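Researcher: Next sequence.
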Amino acid sequence: MEENALTAALVRRCISGDAGAWEELVRQQNRRIYNICYRFTGSGSDAEDLTQEVFIRLYRTMSSYEPEKGSFNTWLTTLTRNMLVDHFRRTRQERLTDSMDAAPAADEDAPTLSEKIEDRAPSPDARLASKETQKMVQQALQKVSPDLREAVILRDLQDMDYKDIALTLKVPEGTVKSRINRGRAELARVLSRTNKQAI
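Model: Next structure:
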């Protein structure tokens, strides 16, 4: 059975009230949803709260999922994206007071998901360099406009294809490609400016 069919079967078991199936679904999707939320918000605590909200909403609305209309992952990513948009709107006023050069957020030092996962391979120096790079990219990503940021996150960090991103964002594929290109260019500009300031 292919992955989509397995997931659809798992969802059907969840809808019928199978608690074990629900636990399995949460276990399968939790890391991916947290990563999307973290990449979008840049805050570990916000990402945890939003991930929890996503699963609460998922539990309440899962019966509306229609497998013939697309994959469960795309449907869940759309649900997550909509909640992130709501979060963005709720916190817009706070962000309006932040400038591009504002001091880092208080919870910026919160451990990233990659820091929470046991890392067995690289040396401490390589790990430090990697963490610094991740932190720099995450900070730069927060300075990219939300529309462009979400397209870049879904493509480059969640490895979704253009078609699924278009379904998730409810925009044409051409718009997705444009947003990804513009988002990458904006991210590169921010990183370049950050590097110049560091020298």
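Model: The chain is about 75% helix and 0% strand. The radius of gyration is 18 Å.
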